[in-house]
Amino acid sequence: MKKECVLVSGGAGYIGSHTAVELINAGYDVVIADNFSNSDIHAVEGVRKITGVDVPCVEVDCCDMEAFRSKVFEKYEFNSVIHFAASKAVGESVEKPLKYYRNNLTSFMNVIELMRDFKRPNIVFSSSCTVYGEPDKQPVTEQTPRKPAESPYGNTKTMCEDILRDSIKAYEGLKGIALRYFNPIGAHPSALIGELPRGVPQNLVPYITQTAAGLRECLSVFGDDYPTPDGSCIRDYIDIVDLAKAHVTAIRRMIENRNKEAYEIFNIGTGRGVSVLELIRKFQEVNHLKLNYKIAPRRAGDIIAIWADPTRANNELGWKAERTLDETLVSAWNWEKHLRGIK
Ligand code: WQD
């Protein structure tokens, strides 16, 4: 029987490459589209090595409608799209809002328009817990009201959710699922793919692993005077492989017509809130090393705490986070050691 094919836009990125692996493991064919503006062909080579499949990869900018049409939609048969292609650095989005609105909105609108024209029905959109802002109540459910985003990056996620909702209403046959993920961390157990931040890492875990590898002198903990048990911020850190598997269950739900609404939203988190200082302690413990860190002033724009209530994804989607924080932090360190040739 012919395999279902899934287009993964931004598929050379951190989440995209891990999702490509899990899609192939689940029996789907995959086509990757990426402009490599914030990713690397090595990630695609890693996907090919892990799966043993020579995954087709098209270098294309999703903002270039004609190129996207001719190089991807006219060339490949797929009924489903998982859309990751977007700029995602919160801080940079504050300095360069137009880059973020232009790139993240244009690429998404092009995907939707081409899916409508080519009658490709199913899309999973990579959304983010950032749409909740600083929640009044924890843990957050899908009914927790969205709040004005703290950054242009976060605002593009809110706007793309609305573009998806309105497009599904307007265009016959289109179905979509928005996955609001929390903080993705870790790497594939093979250590052949993982997070590849360019320049100084903005996110906590890559900064930790680069400090442990000696690339960074000292990790700064941005504030220990927050109203939390140990004073540091709390997040829901979700393993990247678990997150990738959530995308497979979401696309399968639509391919098999099990979605209850044409547009659905799911929180993809562990349901476990972990503080920065707890995560640092855990990283040192499971990897048997001492991390050089200091307490520094708060970072502008950080929220105090957010973690998911994943009940809906567990029950409705049939997905649950499986990997422990220990396993995830070991995988993160193994990946960094692989990258730097550390034994
Ligand atoms: C986590 C905690 C920092 C670095 C962002 C986006 C979100 C999602 C994940 C894409 C915070 C602290 C960090 C450091 C630190 N991205 N920290 N020292 O800001 O929760 O979420 O990335 O979808 O949309 O907003 O993640 O890893 O940057 O920070 O103390 O060097 O670690 O203050 O409390 P964040 P993060």
Question: Would you give an account of this structure?
Answer:
With 343 residues, this protein is of the alpha/beta class. Helices cover 40% and strands 16% of the residues. The protein contains eleven helices and 13 strands. The protein has helices at 14-25, 41-51, 65-73, 90-95, 97-117, 152-170, 204-212, 240-255, 276-287, 311-317, 325-340, and strands at residues 5-9, 29-34, 57-59, 80-83, 122-128, 175-181, 183-185, 219-222, 234-235, 237-239, 263-268, 274-275, 293-296. The strands form four sheets. A seven-stranded parallel β-sheet has the order 3-2-1-4-5-6-11, with helices on both faces. Strands 7-10 form a two-stranded parallel ribbon. The chain has a two-stranded parallel sheet with strand order 8-13. Strand 1, helix 1 (14-25) and strand 2 (29-34) form a beta-alpha-beta unit. Helix 3 (65-73) crosses helix 5 (97-117). The chain is globular. The relative contact order is 0.14. The structure holds UDP-4-deoxy-4-formamido-beta-L-arabinopyranose. UDP-4-deoxy-4-formamido-beta-L-arabinopyranose (WQD) binds at residues 88, 90, 128, 130, 183, 202-204, 207, 219-222, 233, 235, 276, 299, 302.
